[in-house]
Each structure stands twice: as structure tokens, then as C-alpha cells.
Amino acid sequence: MSEVSKLAEDFIKKKPDSLKIICYRDPDGVIGASLLVRLCLKYNIDFCISTLKILDYQALLQLSIEPYNDYVFVGFGTESLKLIDEIFSKKNVLVFDHHTPKVTKSSKSVVCPSFFGIKSYTFVSSSGLVYLFCSALNDSFKSLAWLPAVSISEDFGKEELSEANRSILESAVRNGEVNVVRGLKGLALHNFPVHKALALSVDPYIPGISDNTEEAVDFLNSAGISIRKEGGRGYRMLSELSEEEGRRLATSLIIERLGSSSERKDALGGVYILTDPRFPVSDLKGFAFLLRACNYLNHPSIAISLCLKDFDVKEKALGLLDEYVHEIVSALNWFYKERRLESSSGDNFVFFNAEDKIKESTLSSVVSLIAKSNVYRPGFVIVGCCHTIDGKLKVSSRVTGEGSGIDLLDIFRTIIKKVGDGAFGGHKNATGAIIPSKFEGQFEKVAVGVLREKSIEESIL
User: Fold this and answer.
1) Strand locations in 141-280, DSSP E?
2) Which residues, in sequence order, are CB contacts of 5 under 8 Å at separation 6+?
3) Counted domains in the chain
4) Which one of 332, 359, 381 terminates a domain?
């Protein structure tokens, strides 16, 4: 915090007239960008925001020729520090990124746990770093702790929270923006009718029920849970289920998904709820889901508007949520029914190329949901690919379970080096890449080979 405070003070002393904010197009990135918008408004700094999916040489070069002297990167940047140093040599640059960097030295200002000797990327989110930076400048930003709390609930919700993340969550509760209630931890959208919340669920993905309201109603009826209030006047919200009903629903869902006993044990617990009733989604997990839908369907401005409490975009955002769920479920149905796997029974990975069957906007979500399913044992590597709108190959990967010891970032470093071209980034449990189309075949061959070598290493160990 001492080092972050120094950087914050230096930023305000040299306060720029205008600021270019570039954030990664995911909830954590746009939340961090939204906090910076608040900072710019407070200190009368003109600003412009760009959201990107990857920060490669071409993107950085294009950004560098824009008429700005001051740039801030949020949610990515540490994987491109050498390029940033080179391309932005005459610019002022500030990077907020919690991911593991390739290098820990830069001529630019970098706010990253690794730069302060903290090795764990789960210590704090990128938006959490922006929050700490802003709070060091002005105590009023502590009232915005609910924003990084949304990111924490999505990225680190199932892990033991670090001191920094726990402090941010506690601050959000203490200042009254968030309440903690007991409820179903596994489902989101707690202020939605229970059958609608179930039909819109993709995390967990429930085959035949996700994106199917009629099947969701039948499922609830079979579990003995009424969707209507007493007297038949209106639908019951997910938050209105009794604890016994919640436990019964959780058990039914676990049986449906062939879940583990640990899931059954941890099904009920603390749920973080936004106290402002104007939010279209009340729980932090559901709000993160809504932001992701807006981002991935190319409407990041709506996501940022919601973070700034501009509720005029509420109906548009809910429409994007429906569309997003439909796309995710269609992609998952394709994977489970028609997937082409590049692996054998002895392998510890699944590799698939969906080509144009899965959209680039939803690939990473699909891969993440496959990794969270109960289909593959812990320590399994899921690698998915699809074609992008500009003719490249997008790649997304995840590791199933926790504590596997597998480092996807290191695996992709090896793959890209052997392929000879491509950009990649992320951390050891989740890594993505963009490959030029002419290297698609070579990438597939190299990736499967490297992953197979890794499987052999794991089996030996």
C-alpha cells in the first residue's frame, strides 16, 4: 500500500489534462476502468476508454499514435511490458494488472502483485488494485468497494480469500452497499423468479434446463418447489425460497449434474447482495454475469454504465443477458454432442477446434464452464479454439479443479515459441491466445504434442 500510495500521489502531482484508459474486455477490466472514470470526474481529467480482447503489437501500435501522452492499462499489460516500453517510450504509462508478468522490471509505472514480491495472482484483482490506488488518493473511493467486490465474487469466490480481497469485501459490507444473506451460493440472479433464474443458469450449466424455461418449471415441480407465491399472485424470487427448499433444490441440481458430495455440503452459505434496489441483478455473482454478457456481446459501454449506476441501460442489459445465455447454451450443447477431441484415453487434456460453431465472444466462457463441470477429473486441461471475425484463431484454456500444479502460462509459452507466431496471456489456471490463420494447422499439431508430453509428465509424477 505504501508503494501504491506513492504512485497515486505522483499521478495527481503530474495530473494529466487527458487520459486514455484501455481495459481488458471482462468484468474485472471494465470495473477497473469504471473506477478510473470516477477518478477522472473527481479531478477534472478528460478521458477516453477503449476495451480490447488482446494486447498485441498491432493493438499497441495503433494506441500509441492516438493523441494522448498519458495511458492507463487495466486487466492486462504485464504480458506486454517489453512492447509497451518500446512503443510507448515517450509516453506516460500506468499498468494495473494482477496477472503473472513475463518480466518484473519496466520503465513504466506498474501496479502488479509480482512487482511487490507477492507471487499469487489471486492476492487481489486488477480492479482491486485500481480501487486501492484511488482510495489512497481520496477516502471517498472507499464507498465504491462494491465494484471490486463484484470482481472478487466472480474470480475468487470459491477460494480462500486473501487479506486484501477479504478487506475489500468487508469494506463493501461495512459502508452499506452490500449485504450478506444466507442462500444458494451456486446459483445467481437471486432477485429473478426462481424458474427464470434456473433457465438463465449456465454456471452451473444444466443440460436440458439451461435456456429452457418450460423444462426449468417442470424440474422445480418435480423437486416439490412451487414457483408461485401463496394465492397464486406473482412468481417467487430465488431469494424467497426457504432454507429447506434451497437445500432440496441444491440436492436435485447436484443429482442432475452428477455432482460431488462437497458441492452438496457447500450449497448453502453467504450470498453477497447489492443493497441498491435499482440494480437489474441484485447478487454480486449475478451482476458479474450480467457485465460479462454485455462485454462479450460487444456492448462494454453498457457494462461500464451499470458500474457507474446509470440505470437507463437496464432493459438493454437484460436483453443482452438472454442473448448471451442462448449463445452459451448452444455452444455447450454443440461441445457435448458433436465435439471432435484430439486426445486419447491416457491423456490428461481435451483439445477442440469449434471453427465457426462457437463465437469468439463466448469461447472463453464455454471453456471455463466445461472446466467447472463434473465431466473431467481435477487436473484436466481444456483447450478450445474458434475462428475470429477477422480470420484468426482464438484459443482459450482452463485447468479443472484446484492445486493441480499445472502452469498453462508456461505451456502456452512453449507452444507459441514452437509455432513461431501468436500472442498469449493470462495466468497458470487460465490462458488465452490469438494465432494468425496461416499457423492454425501448425498450432493444433504443436499444441496437442505439447499437451500430450505434459500428460506423460503428469502420469510419471
Assistant:
1) 178-184, 268-274
2) 136
3) 3
4) 332
